[in-house]
Request: fold
Amino acid sequence: MDTLTAIRERRSIKKYDPSHKMTDSEINTLMEQALLSPTSFNMQNWRFVVVKDQEIKDKLKAVSFNQAQVSDASIVVVICGDLKASEKNPQRYWRNTPEAVQNQIVPMIGGFYNDKPQLQRDEVMRSSGMAGQNIMLAAKAMGYDTCPMIGFDPTKVAEIINLPEDYILSFMIVVGKATQGANPRAGQLDFSEVVSFDSF
Reply:
């Protein structure tokens, strides 16, 4: 499936086959695509908790307004982010580059992000959004469907997945085999309303 087709055909699916299991190989392939998503300064500040265990999926469902797709989908990917990624050995993000590049870029990371909690949070959300789109498009190309979700209690989800200190939840994506397609698109805004050229 080419990228434009995947974009057009990706929909937020609510009904999944609860008996379908993704293979570990499929899950790894899917998540490898997430790791190719861009991040500022190559910080790779996203973190992914892939929930396969049915008992844990059921717990997540209970704190997600009992939405069936959480327990019925093959996996739930909880997308999180490390708020302090800029402070955690940033040299590793540039370890494969020439020393001159490292000496130029690495000091800039801390100067740009350290002690700026709002910027750190914003960056996690930007990175998570781009990674999430990679996951959803890759899943579609692999023959799976997805649904991005914010309808959950973040405090309780954090407890269930043992979210570390200095991390934050962004959103969840369920992935699985659809048993029912999406409803017709609800109503796209006109191109002219949302796209401007050169200025508003």
